[in-house]
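Re: beginner question about structure tokens

> Can someone show what the tokenized structure looks like for a real chain? I only ever see the sequence side.

Sure, here's an example I had lying around. Input first:
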Amino acid sequence: MRSSVFISCLISLAALIASPSHAAIRFAHVKAANNDILLIQGTFEPSDLPDKLEAEIKNSAPKFIAFNSPGGDTDAAIGYGRAIRRMKISTLQVSGSKCESACLLAFAGGVRRYAEDASMLVDRTLLSPGSSGLQTGTERYKAYLADMGLDPTLFTFVTSLADGDRRVLSLIDMAGFGLVTGQPTPYVAPTAEETAVSNEAPSTALNGAALQFFLETQRTWSTNEGMSFLENNYGDSVVYYGSPRSKADVLNEKQQFAERWPVRIYAVRSGTAHAACFDICTVVAVVDWYTYSPSRKKSSSGAVNAVMTWDPATHKILAENGKITTKDNSVAGPDRIIRRWLTDNAACSLSYAQDACNSQALLLTELSNSGWCRKADATWGPCTLQ
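And the corresponding structure tokens:
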């Protein structure tokens, strides 16, 4: 199977990184899918001047900068962060590494920032006075965080921590603080046999129509419209997860699922949906899901690599397949979907990416329909009657 740049990035970084180094800053280069990643390792010290980093970037032209650092001098970290922003480089943080304390300030310099869950750790030393002593932290740090596009609540959160209190940030935390603009998600594309793509040139217009149909399929399956939509749009026979099935048989299975999980959110992850149309169309995408049964008080969530074959002449679904890549444990609520909303909302606000803007608006509606609302203090929880 083919894989995205991030799969290669994660594998390569994991092979190189052991534990956060406490030596002075040093550089390493990781080649991944023809993209060079500059790995910054060690503790930030006053002697780590930004011109050292700028020279390294000019010499190697990396696409991403990643970190393996326990933190260190805040002035040096901020200097690195501003250098990263001047050089217009994106930052990447993976769970096999750690970016701790002042390292977060350097990571924040990325023009685009990608991170995996639990790859960052903060404590009060994040906002400790640096070596320069030119300013007491408050205004200086607030100005830097604002310049990097971070939410001011990050400052409040860090200053509220007790001495010695170390917090691992979830992806929801990072997205809420504006630390991330996306997630380095390993996406495995289906095989040639799964997609059955010919050598003919695809139709751009049909590709767009197929994508819209796929998005509508996921949207309706998240509502009470789901069964009627499928009734109208399945072919008389469907190759369902590799087996030829009658339409009636597939609909019966779908009905049983809908009754078992009456609350459903299925969300196509922004930027992952692709269509190839010839005589028929094949759409592949990563879909995040959350399901809940009020009567059983059970819930589940995860991600699936989904594949759909669609006939643009009849507008009927001919085949459906998928492979679950992630299944969350101990699900108490739609954290995965909220995380998606936070990252899409950040991408929409920072870059006005249309697919992210459309996605965050749809997710907000689907979360609300499922009984989850955003509160006045920007936290999420069960909706309450006004």
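Each token stands for a local structural state, so reading them left to right follows the chain. The radius of gyration is 23 Å.
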